[in-house]
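WARN retry 2 of 3 for item q-0093 after timeout on previous attempt; input resubmitted unchanged.
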Amino acid sequence: MEPYHTSLRKQQRQAPKFYLFDRGVQRALARSLDIPLQPGTYEYGRAFEHFIILELKRLCSYARNDFAFSYLRTKDDAEIDLILERPGMRTALIEIKSSTTVEEGDVATLARFLPDFKNAVAFCLSNDARP
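OK item q-0093 returned
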C-alpha cells in the first residue's frame, strides 16, 4: 500500500506497506505459529489491521470498485491506517483499532487530519461493541 501524499515526489520518499495474502504465512516464516495471538498485544493489533485491510481489498476487488488504498504517516509519526479514495464518493479516512474499548484519544489523529481532506469522512473500525 503506497503512502498518501498529494505530491508524487514526497510520496516516493516514504516506503510502501506490504500486506501478504495471509498473515499466517508471515508467522510461519517467523516460526511463531505455535504462539497464540493474545488480544491486547501488539502482534494481535497488527494481525487485526492486516485482516481488515485485506478484507476491504477483497470486497473492492469482488465489487470491481476502482478504489485507491493508501496510508498517511507524518514526520512526527502521526498515522492514519487507511485512506480509501473512492471515485464519485467521499474519501474515507480509517483508523483501525483491535481494542474492545475505543476512547476519544484513540481517534484524535482522525479528528486532527479530517479538516485537511476536502469532503472526507472518518471511520474507526474496531472490536468495540458500541457504535
